[in-house]
Amino acid sequence: MKVLLLMAFSIFVRLCDSPHARCVLATAEPSCGASDNEPLPALSSDVHPDPFSIELLHTQASALTPEFSSARSETIAEQACFLPISDRGRPMLGPVKGLEGVYVASGHSCWGITQGPGTGLVMSEIVLEGKAKSADVSRLLP
Fold it and tell me: For residue 74, what are the CA distances in angstroms to 31, 54, 69?
């Protein structure tokens, strides 16, 4: 099973009340963007955001709304992370052929956080009842 890694770059922006005010909002708005096919480093401390990709993300965010412009917001973090994605571009869910009792539920990329509850439901059906009942996952089998 081949798994490609997608590096996603993110910025977290604190919005200000006005261009002249201190940033006072307690919340931060994440913005995610560009990806590439960089090899996975041995240590997570070796994962760093690409400056060009971060600048592109800033440009795209400010084009969406002036609230994300450098005059009206403050960047409080920039990061890069590796996310699992299969070589076919969609998650893999189900039993692993040839390995009884082994299951996989992976490859959601950045959508894992939103697809997690449905994936958990489907996987519990597969493990406990032998097949998915709540969704057709035939195209997602490993």
Answer: 13, 14, 8
Alpha helices in 1-142 (DSSP H): 51-64, 112-129
Tokens 């005059």 -> residue: 71
pTM: 0.57
Q: What is the band of 26 on the pLDDT scale with cuts at 50, 70, 90?
A: very low
Instruction: Report d(CA 103, CA 52) in Å as an integer.
Output: 39
More confident residue, 108 or 136: 136
Helix, strand, coil: what percent of the chain each, to 5? 30, 30, 40
**Which neighbouring-strand residues pair with 140?**
none
42-71 burial: b if 16+ Cβ within 10 Å, else e: eeeeeeebbeebbeebbeebbeeeeebeee
Token match 């002036």: residue?
66
- Burial group, residue 105, by CB count within 10 angstroms (0-12, 13-18, 19+): buried
